[in-house]
Request: fold
Amino acid sequence: MAEPLAIYVHWPFCLSKCPYCDFNSHVAASIDQPRWAAAYARELAAYATETGKRLVSSIFFGGGTPSLMAPTTVGSVLDAIGGLWPVADDVEVTLEANPTSAEAARFAGFRAAGVNRLSLGVQALDDASLRWLGRGHSADEARAAVALAGRTFPRSSFDLIYARPGQTVVDWRRELDMALDFVRGHLSVYQLTIEPGRSS
Ligand SMILES: C[S@@+](CC[C@H](N)C(=O)[O-])C[C@H]1O[C@@H](n2cnc3c(N)ncnc32)[C@H](O)[C@@H]1O
Ligand code: SF4
Reply:
């Protein structure tokens, strides 16, 4: 039996561009989601001719900001995958989300579409740092989104960025302690990295 297959789906759109971010992410005035769904289906079909019938064990919607996808778009990508490969009963389906309240309102729709793990981009637990990072959410919104994700999905996690300018080891230890108080299973920490050409 061939190795199980893990599928990554990239959604390259964001509401605004965070100044530190070097990911393939863009701000667009309007996005034709049915057209994107059809393009994903064609791309997946092209890959299926190369992989053959391997069991899909993991699907990851990354970005950009996949929580800006309509749940129906997520569902149609999952249907396309299910039509091309056998999918494991215990497949992990993760979606990256930004913790604004508007996006939290879509969590139930993502769960209904088949997402069973949410990864939230919290980044910092105080509003001044979030403003410096150019984030569109407050620390309270982030905490509320983590709690809602815990109630909505079987698994969830969140990301923090450390080594921010002016942040001491004592500050980071305090922030990490706060994070460990409400983490649900998994926490990802990233050292701030500014690539050449980014403005911060
Ligand atoms: C694909 S990115 C962003 C996901 C989502 N759009 C968000 O911003 O929450 C995944 C994670 O990478 C980390 N990240 C992005 N840019 C970074 C940078 N320049 N330095 C360190 N970590 C970074 C953030 O923690 C982010 O949540
Ligand atoms: S929302 Fe996420 S992917 Fe988009 S610009 Fe900010 S860090 Fe990058």
User: Anything to note?
Assistant: The longest strand covers residues 87-97. Residues 20-23, 62-63, 65, 96, 98, 121, 123, 159, 161, 190, 192-193 surround S-adenosylmethionine (ligand 1) (CB under 6 Å). The mean pLDDT is 95. Strands lie at 5-11, 56-63, 87-97, 117-123, 155-162, 185-191.
